[in-house]
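Researcher: Sequence of 2,4-diaminobutyrate 4-transaminase follows. Predict its structure.
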Amino acid sequence: MIGDESDTDDLLTQQARRESNARTYPRSLPLAIDRAEGAILEDVDGNEYVDCLAGAGTLALGHNHPAVVERMERLLERDRAVHTLDLTTPVKERFVDRLLESLPDEFAANAKVQFCSPAGTDAVEAALKLAKTATGNRSMLAFQGGYHGMTNGALSLMGDTAAKEPIPGLMPDVHHLPYPHAYRCPFGLGGEDCWRTSAEYVERTLSNPDSGIVDPAGMIVEPVQGEGGAVPAPAEWLREMRRITREREIPLIVDEIQTGLGRTGELYAVEHADIVPDVMTLSKAVGGGLPLSVVVYDESLDVWEPGAHAGTFRGNQLGMAAGVATIEHVLENDLDDRAAEMGDRLRGHLEETAAQFEAVGDVRGRGLMLGMELVDPDGEPDSLGHYPADGDLASAVQSEAFDRGLIVETGGRHGSVVRFLPPLTISKSQVDEVGEIIRESVRAVVADDRTPTEVPT
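Model: Prediction complete. Tokens:
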């Protein structure tokens, strides 16, 4: 038995012996967490890290924010119920009030809220079920590069084929359309030609009686692809998807599980395009760091019979209390604006690094949802002059950054994108520290592992 005095190596060894081979983060981030506050993690050996993973974007206010802790303590001190199925409580009604208050007015005015099982992927499953029930159709439209979770229906929507190939019997009738990835355009086009061609392709496909696509139950899209590599959809393209789906009476489902509640510099990423979806999936930040997920949708789709969708833990009162505290703090302190400001500051650092090293191919994202794509300058450029994605280099940068006290994630094509999802409360000095660590990590990896490729200044 390993006690409280065990070091990181002991705990990681025990974890590897007892936990599933499916575990992921400990393989690239070998730490055993002891304490956490704000944007800082401390491991059991006393090492501190700036956390730019933040629960995969869950911790909008960072670790153990006083407003969240106080709200949960208050609930427990007053002997409130913590498990209520879908029975109502004052805490639950306050959560719905604050959630609707945070949403765009036009969407909130006609919205219904469905509480689900507590993971974001459960919200996606519920949204699929809702769209199919409301329309009577079965096929779904998704996008290349998309990520919506790891349950059966959500996994079927995923663009990454490697994650799906070992799984038999995924949900049929999912059609993956081209996402307007400006740097890795599926059509090999640059500038606005990429999103315009993507929009035209989608419209022509849905208008073509020989496309092989039966009437869709819905279209699901991330306004910024997260696991796909911090790829923002142009506002004009999102407006086109809204027009195309509305004209064809196809419910538009917007996955805001990672983007929602301020992360992209607006309270919700759809606000960058000023569109109103039919359905929105939410989790992560709205639970204040605790498990909670909801589907918010237009009341015209509310055709479910009582009990048609349920979940034992849809009444997580601690999650709702934490969510209330988080939503209120974000609204009262304009943390969406702060995310835009700190995102610009961090992006400036990343672009400085890109200017110094040819191995940094692209810097992209919105607000505090940023990505830096690593490339192989010795490879053959594509039609746009972009070098091949280099996942090994990104992993090396992640490892080097970890050794220097920074936690980042990788994602995107071939895992080549170093991703940044810090708390919205991250300080200017911490942003500057992140920028410096990443710059020196790229410098160290490029210098150690391959011919130096610094761009002359």
